[in-house]
Design goal:
This protein is of the alpha+beta class. The protein is built from 6 helices and 7 strands; from the N terminus they run ααααβββαββββα. The chain has a 7-stranded antiparallel β-sheet, sandwiched between helices. The longest helix is centred in the middle third of the chain and has 35 residues. The protein is rod-shaped and about 155 Å long.
Amino acid sequence: MTDPGYPPRPPGPPSRHGRQRPPHEPRRTGWQALDAFDAGPDSETDLPPWAVPGGIGPSRPARRPRRPEEPARFRPPEAYYPGVSERPYREPEFADEPGFGGLEASAPPGRSFRPRRSRAAAARRRRSKRRLVTWGGAAAVIVVLAGAIYWLTRSPAPKSSFVTSWQKGEFRVAPEACKIVGASALRQYLAGNPTSQVPGQSQCTYTVDAKPVFRVLTIKVQAAAPTLNAPGNGSATAAAIFNFAEQKQLLARPPKNSPEPPATISPLPGFGGEAFTAVQVYKSGAVSDWVWVVARYRNVLVTVSLQGQASGGFGPVTVPELRAGALAVAQDAMAKVKREPTA
């Protein structure tokens, strides 16, 4: 193997005078002074560094030898969880590699191990649980006591003054109007046998039309029910009072353009409640007199009217005669009402 050294320079360019310069001789200093064809001492100490077996010496110290692997700093899973099969442990290369810490790596398939919590953590959990139970129970007791105090000290709701049910002593039903007066009493009051009868649940009308007698008897018995439509507290008795006053007002002052004449009102004591009589005299066409008896007992209103014609071949008839008949029928009806059961 030859030592090339630096290659010789090429011949220089010709000089100005046309002569070529002689080539410079190579350097003969140091290791470059050697030549493969030069005679001299064959000493390896003069060889260049790259020609020495083993190459160029290191410019920095060599790396330290690798430390022997230390034993794992963990206890095998069998020490914490008896019965777990042993598996070879491999130290993970990265912290995020599955199995870091050695527990999951040693767990059987489908199971993962969690480190056992310390006694201090368990004691903290117990204390937290006791505090939660204590404060929760205290809060529940406070809420119950506050509700009880509110319930006991609150003012009662104002009771409504309106009545929506039957009161004691009131009548739920009234007697049938057509069963109040018997046949003999009817012949006496009507001065003859009735030729027609219009029955109903609360009203019944009898008529005698046989010259020289013309009589029309109407009996109406109604038991008022609790209602808020009438003035008052809504009870059945309040409704009957309102109906009694309204009927009295209509007789005394009939509506405008009504053919009925105003009635003469007179109080009528002795019926156990309130009652009045009214007399109307019709003079348009045939002359007739109409006598009314209206009485109220609790929540029952009794209305009896008796009409007699005194012209056109009928008559004679007088107002006292008609009033006596209407009053007798009203008394019979009131007696029937008082025998009915009450609420």
